[in-house]
Amino acid sequence: MDDIKDDWIREARDIAPLDTGNLRKQIAGDVEGQDLNLKTIVTANAAQKGFNYGYYIHEENAGGKSLRTSGTVKKFLDEAADEAKWKRWLEEEIADELKRAGW
Question: pTM to 2 decimals?
């Protein structure tokens, strides 16, 4: 799950809007839970003076404004999420662990 979190953060930083770079620096994640009840959470805040810039870009469509930097997207967290790849990673890890355990 840590690999998934790190991959998601890395991919999101690559496509997050780039103005001052603050939003990209503020993308962070955590793995919560235990055993088979784990989840990965990735957030992007970049709040200034009580205004959440990350939320504004991602959830409020940047107020309809266009992005200045090509290759960036407003839904950077959603676009960076590659659930099919991560599912494949988890399945491979589980299969490897079962082999090591003699199953």
Answer: 0.86
